[in-house]
UniProtKB/TrEMBL annotation:
PANTHER family the UniProt entry points to: BTB DOMAIN-CONTAINING PROTEIN-RELATED (PTHR24410:SF23), HL07962P-RELATED (PTHR24410)
Superkingdom classification of source: Eukaryota
Domain TLDc, chain residue ranges per copy: 298-476
Gene3D superfamilies linked to this entry: Potassium Channel Kv1.1, Chain A
SUPFAM superfamilies reported in the protein's UniProt record: POZ domain
Pfam families for the chain: BACK, BTB, TLD
Coiled coil stretches, renumbered: none
SMART domains: BTB
Domain BTB: 23-96
Name of the molecule in the record: BTB domain-containing protein
InterPro entries xrefs: BACK, BTB-POZ/Galectin-3-binding, BTB/POZ_dom, SKP1/BTB/POZ_sf, TLDc_dom
């Protein structure tokens, strides 16, 4: 059985690097005021690096007094020192190195074709130095985005940004982000960013990128027509990537309307029509970001369907564990608003949600039926049932939910297919006169808003209204 003495070999080669006087290569690294010369042995360089094997061939080398001279101004001395030690000893210690130096080693080893060290450094940046990467996303993306071999680190950085964009968009370097990288990020459906924030930071980036604007001229009240035209040209590629329909009407008025001059006229007209008439735009067709819920509703936007799914899972709608498909079973405006049609479309379809819109209000009422409509008679047990309301089909600020009280799970749903379309514990129900009734029965309790708040403003009036629209969706997971 043989023996191996790698440690002794490494130490002896390190002595050869530091103390030997028989070197035949001088490598000058760095530029300007940061230049350093390193002495090395051509045979070791050739053996350890395919790059040096070619570069130190007889056709490439320059000699001065029988000494091969070689210049690498693009590699900093601190970076080359790490690489040269690895070439001689096969050892590397990055624990006390700055992130900037480690990134430099990655780029240099890619150029020098030192594959094992390159792979190690790339993994080290992702596993041990990612806090530094997050603080320097722009530098990292601009550096490794140019190198096909660094795709692993690039993709990892992009995925991390999508999960948490804040470190990137709030960094001082964000306004200098490459436009192709920004375009790729805004195009992604999994970028976890509120759409109004996407708009705000796009404007910030665009202002900095536009000649004549920037930090010295960022007050739009002082801009002239040429300034707006220049900014419009900068942002032209990016405007279609903003999901305007997921921005609240108040933010539209305060933050988008003042910049209408930079938005193409047809796009702005469609956006305005959406806010005034709830008509979906024709030319901006991107789905909501992070869409884990598929729904085609005339009453609510998909972001509200995400909130409902979050209530079903009892978790934040940004952290859904399942994907949901809300399949339309019944729509009153096309099927007819009456109990018999409701039942023929919805019975025995499994769990579902009901959405109801009042004729004289923007408010949406609804309920979750975890059992589905069974077509039987009597009270139905359901521990996960809840009722809810939204101020409008796109308002995510003022929603309210009331879950069935733990004392009344057996009274969560009432089934009588002759008299009711739906009936959430005699609290919210559709009667056989095809009207919607409210009653604070006590079966649904205070959760994120009590029943009175959910049913207002009608609970203290006649407790009944004729619905403008009713939708029922079957819920399935994918």
């Amino acid at each position: 059985m043989g023996s191996k003495f790698h440690t002794d070999l490494s130490q002896e080669l390190l002595l050869m690097l530091n103390d030997a006087d028989d070197h035949n290569v001088i490598i000058q690294t760095g530029a300007d005021q940061n230049i350093k010369e390193f002495r090395a042995h051509s045979n070791i360089l050739r053996a350890r690096s395919p790059y040096f094997k070619s570069a130190l061939s007889a056709n490439w080398i320059t000699k001065n007094n029988n000494m091969i001279e070689f210049k690498k101004p693009n590699i900093r001395p601190a970076v080359f020192e790490i690489i040269l030690k690895y070439i001689y000893t096969g050892e590397v210690d990055l624990s006390n190195q700055s992130g900037d130096n480690i990134l430099g080693v990655l780029v240099a080893t890619d150029e020098l074709l030192i594959e094992k060290l390159f792979n190690y450094v790339q993994d080290h940046l992702m596993e041990k130095q990612f806090n530094w990467v997050k603080q320097n996303y722009v530098l990292v993306l601009h550096t490794v985005g140019k190198l096909d071999s660094c795709k692993k680190l690039y993709d990892y950085s992009i995925e991390s940004i999508c999960q948490d964009p804040k470190p990137l968009i709030t960094s001082k370097d964000f306004p200098s982000l490459d436009k192709d990288i920004l375009y790729g990020l805004l195009k992604r459906d999994d970028l976890r960013i509120e759409e109004i924030d996407a708009w705000d930071y796009l404007l910030k980036w665009g202002i900095e990128q536009t000649p004549g604007l920037g930090s010295k001229n960022n007050d739009r009240k002082k801009w002239n027509d040429n300034n707006y035209k220049a900014l419009k040209k900068t942002l032209n590629l990016f405007i279609p990537l903003i999901r305007f329909v997921d921005i609240s009407s108040s933010d539209f008025f305060d933050k988008i309307r003042p910049y209408r001059a930079v938005i193409p006229l047809q796009t702005y007209e469609e956006i305005a029509e959406f806010y005034y008439k709830n008509t979906l735009p024709k030319t901006t067709t991107f789905p909501p970001r992070n869409a884990k819920v598929q729904i085609e509703s005339k009453l609510i936007r998909p972001n509200l369907a995400h909130i409902i799914a979050g209530w079903i899972e009892r978790r934040n709608d940004k952290e859904l564990s399942n994907k949901y498909n809300f399949q339309l079973l019944y729509r009153g405006s096309q099927d007819g608003i009456n109990v018999s049609t409701f039942r023929s479309k919805c019975n025995n379809q499994g769990r579902c949600i009901v959405l109801v819109k009042h004729q004289e209000s923007s408010k949406i009422y609804g309920g979750y039926n975890p059992n589905g409509f069974t077509g039987s008679y009597g009270w139905q047990y359901a521990s996960e049932s809840f009722i809810f309301s939204f101020e409008s089909g796109r308002d995510i600020q003022n929603m309210k939910i009331s879950r069935v009280s733990s004392s009344y799970y057996s009274y969560a749903m009432y089934e009588n297919y002759n008299n009711n379309g739906f009936n959430f514990g005699n609290t919210l129900y559709m009667n056989n006169d095809n009207q919607i009734y409210f009653s604070n029965s006590g079966y649904y309790d205070n959760y994120d808003g009590n029943v009175n708040n959910i049913l207002s403003p009608y609970i203290n009036q006649n407790n009944v209204f004729v619905p403008q629209e009713i939708e029922v969706f079957k819920i399935t997971n994918s």
